[in-house]
Write a structure and sequence with these properties.
The structure is a single chain. The protein has a domain of 102 residues. The protein is 51% helix and 0% strand. It has seven helices and no strands. The radius of gyration is 16 Å and the shape is globular.
Length: 165
Amino acid sequence: MIDREARDRFAQAIRALVAGTITNDQFEDIRLPSLNTADPAIAAIYQEGAWHLYSDLEEHRLRGKHALSPKDKSHVARWVLFLKTDLPYEWPELRGMRFFALGLANLFTFGLANRFYANWFKQQGEVEVWPFIRQADYAAALERPVYLGVASNNSFKPMPLRGTA
């Protein structure tokens, strides 16, 4: 299920976080209501992506020593681009009992179970364009940028993969 309103709010919050116009704590305050949705893309992008951008031990902006690298900004721009599409999130979801079971298996295998899961996950689509599942979907979305036109001089934009543009 695609929740257009929640995706738009979440995309705006991610953009504000990366631009440094809001703090990580302000992002948390904005993000929490956006996660109360049946759209699996929002939870996945938060858990597998946005949550890793900042430390929740102190309030800060993603500027200066906390600034993202150009590569990280490109990844984030791809997440935002996905959120602005009407594509369904097609990657397998690790929720509920599956999440618990993997955590338990990791505990008993000293993390080996997670390696197996990661290898299996990589076989489900083209991970280099995540959260898109196919390169073709990503390329099509790049042709219709919502925020960033080709002539834009903005450093916060998704980059096509090598050999595709």
